[in-house]
């Protein structure tokens, strides 16, 4: 007889599953300016018993990402808050996902989730549910960072949209964030000159000294035009835009013919009630024949594992470093989100539940 | 013995060529706001005798195009004014270009030109020198319009950058201009829904009634958002942007996922001393994953004849109509340029020398 630990454990947990109450964040008011705790309600709900093929997952790490601020405008309220998480499977009626496994999934801001393992993509944010391999000695939280959505955003966004060639110059805004800091390191791996803009001298120092950026500038204190002349003497071939805003218009005016711009986000405007006005980009686009393309990482869902594998390989080879800011407690989700929107962190921010 | 009319005619003209004085516009001041006559000097110069391979061309029609306002900022002054022209070959020591032939070339604002027929591309604006076929019954001036640079701008810009598919919706700004009016008609040939924005009711009427646009709106009097809802109920797949400015940001916010934007010009800002500020485009680019690409038509110099041939075919089949505004007199170049920058014309503006 085959030993089926999954079945055994499921029996052990079967009483638990019936009683599990999940906590979740429900957004009840559209954000006005910065997100506020009073925009949310924490709601408890009883989860249903598992059906065949389903699993019960308990959140270990919740992700906070800039897109969360921007996306919610598209939902009818009240609605469950969206987001990715790393969760531990604590009950399973799915033969492919054993109890004890760690998974990532777009389950939102909630403590427990019942989900079908067969349903690979979720509807709210269209990202894969993945069973994690053994990541030790790395923390499982990396599956929300360089081995997850931000890592794949950096990998595919740079490679597929910017298409940098060896020797070209890449500029990155939001360069100390989870995506930006990763983009710059991939740029160095590909043999490019890498220039970052970030919001504190400390971050800039980290980018230059720890991550190998050729130059990093504090956009709050530098003259961006002068910084570009100084840092990108051959002008800019690829621009990885995380922030939008005036700095992006300035960078585009410093690009080379046929330059490529990957528009990953526009965090500089997310908290604005009305979208801001900046210098038009069209003249630079025409006369330098630039290509500017916005993207969402789920465009590459069918190549998801390629990105994860490559980033894990580079991580193991010591070519990619990461920094993580871990907030503690489910009740601190809003503070963590505020932190990234205010630029308080370097690298990836997660919340340990 | 073969009859060689070229050689015979060259002898007839050989005395003329030695004495020809050309008139040309020299830009002496950078434009501030609208171009002014006092920004230019009309200068006379003696042309050199023809060397082997060269021709002497006498301008018949000079082109005025919006790009002229924008380009000159890149030149060191004083400099000869750039531009395309249709010229008649009045002397030739090039066996491929007979006397009496009509040619187009980027010779600038000047009455006579000595040029090498072997030099296919000019350095100042990189457009082909072409010997025109017999265009009768059409005027040779079309070689500056639908059978020339604007026609190829419409043809390649729409096909290669916007890549419209049958049934998609195309929006065009500057829709009554030389390029815009042509883009819309190609859009209809390709089976698309075509919406234009132009600056007078008369132009809009012309676009709808004469050129077959599905809808045309006067951007000066309409609410652009409401016009888009009304005219593009399935939202916008392709945007051919001739104007830049706030209207472009509004149109981009009304596009479908994976929409394509061909940025051909930004005439709305050409007369501004400082580039204007408009609502940022990055959020629309990210969340709809739009691709926005600026282009100059000389990118397709190696396919130049393809565009001309296709536009001539459509013209002969009655599928493409054109309108021409002919100014008279070399001394009226600046007025003609002002006219197009002010949106005074429908279709293409040329100056008969």
Automatic annotation (TrEMBL), chains A, B:
What reaction gets catalysed by this protein?
Answer: 4-hydroxynonanal + NADP(+) = (E)-4-hydroxynon-2-enal + NADPH + H(+); decanal + NADP(+) = (2E)-decenal + NADPH + H(+); leukotriene B4 + NADP(+) = 12-oxo-leukotriene B4 + NADPH + H(+); 13,14-dihydro-15-oxo-PGF2alpha + NADP(+) = 15-oxoprostaglandin F2alpha + NADPH + H(+)
The EC number(s) given in the record are: 1.3.1.48, 1.3.1.74
Which Gene Ontology cellular component terms are annotated?
cytoplasm
Q: Which Pfam families match?
A: ADH_N_2 (PF16884), ADH_zinc_N (PF00107)
Checking CDD domains in the record gives: leukotriene_B4_DH_like
Class of this enzyme: oxidoreductase
Q: Name one GO biological process term.
A: prostaglandin metabolic process
- Provide the coiled-coil residue spans: none
Q: Which residues form the Enoyl reductase (ER) domain?
A: 37-351
**Localization terms from the record:** Cytoplasm
Keywords, alphabetical: Acetylation, Cytoplasm, Fatty acid metabolism, Hydroxylation, Lipid metabolism, NADP, Oxidoreductase, Phosphoprotein, Prostaglandin metabolism
Q: Name one GO molecular function term.
A: 2-alkenal reductase [NAD(P)H] activity
Family, per the entry? Answer: Belongs to the NADP-dependent oxidoreductase L4BD family.
How does this chain assemble?
Answer: Monomer or homodimer.
This protein's name: Prostaglandin reductase 1
State the organism named in the record. Bicyclus anynana
């Amino acid at each position: 007889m085959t030993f089926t630990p999954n079945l055994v454990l499921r029996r052990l947990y079967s009483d638990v599953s019936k009683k599990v109450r999940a906590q979740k964040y429900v957004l009840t008011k559209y954000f006005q300016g910065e997100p506020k705790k009073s925009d949310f309600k924490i709601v408890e709900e009883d989860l249903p018993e598992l059906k065949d093929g389903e699993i019960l997952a308990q959140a270990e790490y919740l992700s906070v990402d800039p897109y969360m601020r921007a996306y919610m405008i598209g939902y009818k309220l009240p609605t469950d808050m969206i987001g990715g998480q790393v969760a531990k499977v604590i009950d399973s009626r799915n033969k492919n996902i054993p109890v004890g496994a760690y998974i990532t999934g777009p389950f939102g801001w909630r403590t427990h989730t019942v989900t079908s393992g067969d349903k690979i993509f979720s509807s709210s944010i269209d990202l894969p549910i993945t069973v994690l391999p053994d990541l030790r000695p790395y923390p499982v939280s990396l599956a929300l960072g360089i081995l997850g959505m931000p890592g794949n955003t950096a990998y595919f966004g740079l490679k597929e949209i910017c298409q940098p060639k060896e020797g070209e110059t890449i500029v990155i805004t939001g360069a100390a964030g989870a995506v930006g800091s990763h983009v710059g390191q991939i740029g160095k791996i590909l043999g490019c000159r890498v220039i970052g803009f970030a919001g504190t001298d400390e971050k800039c120092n980290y980018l230059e000294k720890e991550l190998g950026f050729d130059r990093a500038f504090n956009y709050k204190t530098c003259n961006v035009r002068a910084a570009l002349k100084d840092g990108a003497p051959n002008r800019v071939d690829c621009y990885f835009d995380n922030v939008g805003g005036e700095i992006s218009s300035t960078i585009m005016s410093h690009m080379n013919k046929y330059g490529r711009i990957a528009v990953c986000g526009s965090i500089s405007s997310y908290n604005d009630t009305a979208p801001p006005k900046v210098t038009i980009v069209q003249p630079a686009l025409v006369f330098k024949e630039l290509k500017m393309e916005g993207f969402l990482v789920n465009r590459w869902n069918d190549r998801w594992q390629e990105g994860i594998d490559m980033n894990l390989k580079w991580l193991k080879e010591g070519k990619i470093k990461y920094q993580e800011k871990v907030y503690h407690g489910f009740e601190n989700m809003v503070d963590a989100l505020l932190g990234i929107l205010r630029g308080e962190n370097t690298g990836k921010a997660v919340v340990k539940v």
